[in-house]
Amino acid sequence: METIQLAFEEFGNPDNRPLIILHGFFASSRNWRQIAQRLSARFHVYVPDIRNHGASEHHPLMDYPSMTADLLRFIEERGLETASFLGHSMGGKVAMWLALTNPDRVHKLIVADIAPVSYKHSFDNTVQALKALPLAEISNRKQAETLLAAHIPELGYRQFLLQNLILKDGNYCWRLDLDIFQRMAPNIAAFPNADHLAPFTGKALFIAGSDSDFVKPEDINLLFPEAAFSTIADAGHWLHVQQPDAFTVLVEDFLDLE
Predict the structure, then answer these.
(1) Torsion on CA atoms 22, 23, 26, 32, rounded to nearest 10
(2) Phi, psi values for residue 102, rounded to 5°
(3) Cα 21 from Cα 15, distance rounded (Å)
(4) Is-catalytic flag, 151?
(5) Which of 28, 29, 56, 89 is flagged as catalytic?
(6) How far apart are CA 179 and CA 62, in angstroms?
(7) Is a pLDDT exceeding 70 seen at residue 258?
(8) Domain segments of the chain: what residues?
(9) Is 237 an active-site residue?
(10) How far apart are the C-alpha atoms of 188 and 185, rounded to whole Å?
């Protein structure tokens, strides 16, 4: 399988235990800087940009086996035999697929508000809204946010998506290839068939937001029978943004357990 070299950010002392943080769909390493910096006091934290995101290369294929292959290459390039992994949403599915297919590489697994299932969720509205923005007519980011509001009413989500809008040679453009995102979105909502794989029996923690319905314990038990399950109050799918203190404490406590 063709792999790409992932761009990444790095935090903390290389002598500390390695922790790799994997972001979600439409996100990048920059979305995790605050938490990565907090965790870097005790861990050597890597935050790669998954293919087609952030500063990493674009590739027409984006599914969990290909993203996991990139991650394996990343681990090998860093000289890491094992690491702990923290993944949110799409990144959580990458981390789960790695744990199921290469369990010897995973010291501990933390999955934030996602399960190893295929969802019916569609990204069509999001991608179409971004593609419809008249970039040639936009002179500032606030204008882009206003234009996007009709199709994406949630301010926080608009601002999150617009982090992918960059100014290049005096003109606004998307850092993402929206055509790839449109074609590959069904792969992101899905999860590969794992019937042929043994369950991951290593140490795992699934963290859900109390206001989110993405994770049900019964969706986890078959493939991750030893996993612990925690819920963060007053948080939805973006639990690490909405409750960063509670989220970070859960992560630290789990990683510190023997």
Answers:
(1) -140
(2) -140, 60
(3) 18
(4) no
(5) 89
(6) 12
(7) no
(8) 8-119+190-256, 124-184
(9) yes
(10) 5
Residue 29: CB atoms within 10 A of its CB come to 24
Q: Quick check: 59 pLDDT over 80?
A: yes
Q: Which of 179, 234, 253, 256 is catalytic?
A: 179
Confidence of residue 157 (pLDDT cuts 50, 70, 90): very high
230 is catalytic: no
Task: Return mean pLDDT, the chain.
Answer: 96
**CATH number of 8-119+190-256, picked from 3.90.400.10, 3.40.50.1820, 3.50.50.60, 3.30.40.230:** 3.40.50.1820
- From the candidates 23, 44, 53, 237, give the one annotated as an active-site residue: 237
Bridge partners (DSSP) of residue 232 are: 209
Residue 76 backbone zone (phi > 0: left; psi -120 to 50: alpha; other: beta)? alpha
User: Which band of pLDDT confidence, cut at 50, 70 and 90, is reported for residue 26?
Assistant: very high
Q: What is the pLDDT of residues 104-136, one digit of tens each?
A: 999 999 999 999 999 988 899 999 999 999 999
Q: What percent of the chain has pLDDT over 90?
A: 95
